[in-house]
Amino acid sequence: MKQKPRVVVAREAPARYEADVRPGSSRSIPVGTFKARCLALMDEVRDRGTEYVITKRGKAVAKLVPVRVESRRLLGSMRGTVTVRGDIVSPTDEPWDALEDLDDGR
């Protein structure tokens, strides 16, 4: 009698959060642990604002921090970005090449 292959489902262990971790606080984590839990840690950083210092052989090599997005108002957001250099409304009194083509009857 042939047995069916057994299916094993691997599940990530639930993240353990420390009660005293405040947004903006920093925790140290070895690179091997970071590699194994990278996506879960990134979600925690986004949701809770936690910062992680990633260490390799006890020395800090990188820091995982949340992105601070600065919201800007739509109206007035371009103020100060345009410079007017002279009169842009008055005619320049220079002949146009396009008008010469009309005069030739083309």
Structural class: alpha+beta
Measured as a percent range, the helix fraction is: 10-25%
What would CATH call the class of the domain at 26-64?
Alpha Beta
Number of strands: 3
Distance between the termini: 93 Å
Q: Can you give the mean pLDDT?
A: 77
CATH domain topology of the domain at 26-64 = YefM-like fold
CATH architecture of the domain at 26-64: 3-Layer(aba) Sandwich
Strand-residue fraction?
Answer: 15-25%
Q: Which stretches are low in confidence, meaning pLDDT under 50 for 5 or more residues running?
A: 10-21
Brief write-up:
About 11% of the residues have low confidence. The protein is α+β, with helices and mostly antiparallel strands and 106 residues long.
Description:
- Residues 10-21 have low confidence and may be disordered.
- This protein is an alpha+beta fold.
- A three-stranded mixed sheet has the order 1-2-3.
- The chain contains three helices and three strands, in the order βααββα.
- It has a domain at 26-64: 3-Layer(aba) Sandwich (YefM-like fold), CATH 3.40.1620.10.
- Helices cover 23% and strands 16% of the residues.
Explain the layout of strands and helices:
Blueprint lengths: L25 E5 H6 L1 H11 L2 E6 L2 E6 L32 H7 L3
Parallel strand pairs: 1-2
Antiparallel strand pairs: 2-3
